[in-house]
């Protein structure tokens, strides 16, 4: 505890002698104050160490110490007031000293308490900041000694500003406690000793007056509280406590809740209820204090323009829903087959919902409506999906009916736990959701179900109709139709599925079934066959029916409806007979997984948990992998079902990719060390073998990351990778282990306890065989095969594989161990002589018997086999047909070899060391039949989206491909186009796309033509793939596509009638319904191809320039036709602001979907500073100045929206889990430092000054208004410099609001700005 300082005794005597003499002479208080000040000056002048300065801390201490209470006279009070008014003493110090003396004696000295309250009212705000120096230090010591602020509020180092804030806050809480105690309701937490004074039995006039004074003092204390808390400066100080000291502020709120609970039941408080209500309102206003710019300024219009309330937004630019385009782009990007989410999509979507609701200043009903409309458009765009290995309708329905409800659930439940809106006309989130769902019925075109969903929607509508009918009939079973009643068959749409999803997750209740027009029965019949349809196969299963025949088929086609059904299936899959395990696994991975939307988050976790079955713990051998054998059939069934594209994508949407990878690694390690049985001849999808289970698990694992990564991508873009860095196995494990660590100590929800996933970390070093292959594969990608270590066992295995593959084509294989001695280019690897002339190192038995070796041994040797293949083919010793046949034989025998084949060929293609071969139809398959038609169709697609590709395949020139690419392409067209081949075809197909695109886009034309000739139904998919190729190395198409996206979203810039009829906004950018390739929208092509962009700096620069160009052009169009000076009319200015927001939001959306955090970082650190520093061509005229100003606003919005989309606006948002929050803090801090240096004059800009000023005002305003958590990352000195610059521009409120967000260290700067 710090001891309060005290003045010297001599000064005390001198001052009091002067006071006594002046009072004796009858001098007025002012004259006495002058005389007293002379005493202080003469005393301080004699002390060389202190110097002469006012206000005097010693004088204040002397006056207060004598006033309380040895010289408690009216003259002394008047003298003290004069000294405060003339700044002889510091008012804050006087009030602090009086507080510590008067409050404990307020009942014994009611007159002094009354005068103290009056001084509080007069001088709580009428003081100025003392300059730093001796006076300030002395005053702070007196305040601290009197009130012990640092000890009370546990502040280690207290500065002057913090003293002021804590004094005001302490005074308010003290007055509350005094008032409560005086009204007979002492607050439980206070421990203040009060001097009651002497109690006289005489009720004389003076005694009655003092009693009345005590009662009126309590009322006056509340008046003083209401009076000072209504001042804006006091509210700012309270807001600082609210931001930086939540503990003390919560104590204040506890007092308010205590008063609220007792004010109506206590007569004394009921009489002052009007004061309490005003005081409560002032405290609430202080809590919600935010920066509100002047609405008459352009900045005020910019920051206060709502999302859907502006009439001009209906007429120009992207239209009414343009500000929600991020929802559509986010969802469409989530459907991209090469996009694996680092976490659960619904977590990121929840953060995005909150972010857009805040920055668009929209109601929750508007926000939820925009969200559901985006999800419905997503489904409509995929209602007629193309055939091919891409996510189809099930993934889109998962987004609509599982991901979106899961993203809304935390918002609704969080509100129910904290507070419920009521009485203020604001709908709660749950009420807003109900109102939103009711309003969706007006969007009938979006609610039309795809053909595959018609029966499901009708069943949902029928369920609602049955519920309503049974409710009206008083039936106890509301959910099922009774056979005594007519069966109601209703026609449904997607709204019925949405409502069912919300009811299941307790977001709304079953009163939704009674909404007007929700149930429209179309058929009423007594046909008992329709009643039997209502019986679910799950009912039979739960009643004990065996999983055989028709029941198993029905269960696979019908989603489960409850957790209990899943639990029973899970037990059978783990503990049943072999047949039951297989059947239960297939059922779990059937419709319950793909279309069990209402409980899909449970199903996916159960399925993933099946990949880690409980193992026998009594194995006699440590590390024995045979413990997996009892579960082999179950694992085979699960893995074969999970191989489909939609299933993998659903797992990705639920954020389980890293969990799946961790579960697959031990399976690969175990089954990869087991040899197949002696009878094994070739892989059969329907046959469960060690090779088949390993192949399923291994190929599933490598599909989760880019295992074949071409070596060239390590050198592109100068930052170690493409615009959007690819996921690696190391990255997957890191994400998974971080998730485990973050969830340690987390109590699981009882609902999900059945499917809690393993909570231990997984490292690749725990799986030595997998680790060896992983590093060998990386070595194959990074260097030529000759650089690998070749062990003797590996060479022997390679020889066995070579002989096995070519025994059917009458080829003799020179042993790999021999060919190695002559290097990778040996031409004597294979010959065409008869089998009887084979080398003696390989026996006849080994030629006839397949190599029954563990899978890892096979994978280790396959690269050398492939090198032998290509070398022999390149030197003409192996025909192309035999090469393709040999590769296909290898895949048939050992499906997992597809991974090594793909990886090896991908690396060889990018090295460019192999000669090209002619695709002439003789040696290699010819694409001539479809090549030129295929090319023309692709160019039509590009022309439709505004992209001009100059390169064409030369007419009359035979098509050629590099040898590895020709071999890989020829292999792909040998695969069947059925679902059984998905797990191998999709692996090699995706890698082939990247390889072909890595050569030139003309190579992709050849591959696409071959695919089209193989399977005509894959024609649209081949076009889909080929359109991505030109964007890898050609920058012009990228820039053209981005420009088309802006044009499609914003519509024509002209103000003529065409802007009212043109297709723009979300529909113009992405479309609203299914479209074929010839009618492709620019936004869809951008989402499809942005992962191929290779230069992040170029992408950032192009988007930035487009934002500048379009904001200036559209602003000029709006200003055109009016006087050269901008008219500050509401309509014209609001229209211009809408354009600025729309341009920035489409730019930010494209930037984030293309490169996520990387492109936003480049935008902040390089693109924007470079542009501001560069010299711009300035055209004379006021319109140019206004255009530059609006461009400055557009830059700020682009930076703000981009950061908000990636990281969110909160301090601990979901985006910070996926992308390090340190990146956001570094970017914001760096740009604020840049602004501060420019404002200081240390950096000279080249841009228009109006652009710079507009950018600074808007960027800082956006931070203060919508993202205060971001400001905490800035340096305090930076905030001070920016605040000083803003005050020079007369933006005092903005400067003060910025400083308020600087934390405890900025409190002093805020106080200095206020007083």
Automatic annotation (TrEMBL):
One of its GO terms (cellular component) is mediator complex. Residues 818-847 are annotated as: Disordered. InterPro entries: MED33A/B (IPR039638). Coiled coil: none annotated. GO terms for biological process: regulation of phenylpropanoid metabolic process. It comes from the Eukaryota. Residues 818-845 have a biased composition (Low complexity). This is Mediator of RNA polymerase II transcription subunit 33A-like isoform X2.
